[in-house]
Write a structure and sequence with these properties.
70% of the residues lie in helices and 0% in strands. The protein is mainly α and 69 residues long. The chain has one domain. It is elongated and about 45 Å long. The termini are far apart.
Length: 69
């Protein structure tokens, strides 16, 4: 578990915290939440999805008929 959290925080540091300075804590909070929801959760492989990312899982599970709608 320690390795996973170290990896997460290293990615957070590189992709959010080291990119710029924020004027307020609220701006920083929004940047962190946005990164987690838009990037980290969408690209991270998940065991319960068969080691697929959510994007890969959606692509596989979406039928052509659903895509056309």
């Amino acid at each position: 578990m320690l390795k996973v959290s170290q990896s997460f925080f290293a990615l957070l540091q590189k992709n959010v915290l080291d990119r710029q300075r924020w004027a307020t804590r609220e701006q920083l909070r929004i940047a962190i939440v946005t990164w987690i929801e838009r990037t980290y959760h969408r690209r991270r492989r998940q065991l319960r999805l068969g080691r697929l990312t959510p994007v890969e899982f959606e692509t596989i599970m979406t039928t052509p008929a659903t895509q056309a709608a």
